[in-house]
Amino acid sequence: MRHGVAHKKLNRTSEHRKALLKNMLNSLIKYEQITTTLPKAKFLKPQADKIITLGKKDSLQNMRLLVSKLQDVKSANKVKKTLSKRYISRKGGYTRIIKAGFRYGDKAPMAVIEFVDRDVEAKKVDRKKKEKKVEEKAPIKS
């Protein structure tokens, strides 16, 4: 019988599972869309919704809880300033899971988890803009 079993273990220790969740939450907040395996996406969805709900309530205690759960002030500020304003009229269901086939190496079911009204430009946060370098030819001294 499965009495009292509340969550998936994902075949990890509790410390590894907590670190995995924190890193995936930070990536989801930063890029607003990530690709992962289906069980991890299902594990992440309720936690991400709880984080957005926490950010919608304006208080110092909630800000401290956000920083405590995410361990990143930038992510907590983005939740507080951007995401909570975006979903102010929505009562829940801030994320969606889209199945994305199977991984090539081991046939693991893959999924895309994203925010419902996501900003498409957030995916390009870390990409450097390609600068066109015009190489000037130095005069040859003879």
Q: How would you write the strand order of the largest sheet?
A: 1-3-2
Mean pLDDT: 90
How does the overall form come out from the CA principal axes?
A: globular
Low-confidence stretches: none
CATH class: Alpha Beta
DSSP strand content = 5-15%
Give a quick account of the main beta sheet: strands, pairing sense, barrel closure: 3 strands, antiparallel
Description:
The protein is α+β, with helices and mostly antiparallel strands and 142 residues long. It has a single domain (14-119), classed as 50s Ribosomal Protein L17, Chain: A (Alpha-Beta Complex), CATH 3.90.1030.10. 44% of the residues lie in helices and 14% in strands. It has four helices and three strands. The protein has a three-stranded antiparallel beta sheet with strand order 1-3-2. Helix 1 packs across helix 2 (38-56) and helix 2 (38-56) packs across helix 4 (73-86).
Features:
142 residues; alpha+beta; 3-stranded antiparallel beta sheet; 50s Ribosomal Protein L17, Chain: A; 4 helices
Question: What is this structure's SSE topology?
Answer:
Elements lengths: L13 H18 L1 E5 H19 L3 H11 L2 H14 L8 E8 L6 E7 L27
Antiparallel strand pairs: 1-3, 2-3
Helix pairs in contact: 1-2, 2-4, 3-4
Summarize the structure.
With 142 residues, the protein is α+β, with helices and mostly antiparallel strands. The chain is built from four helices and three strands; from the N terminus they run αβαααββ.
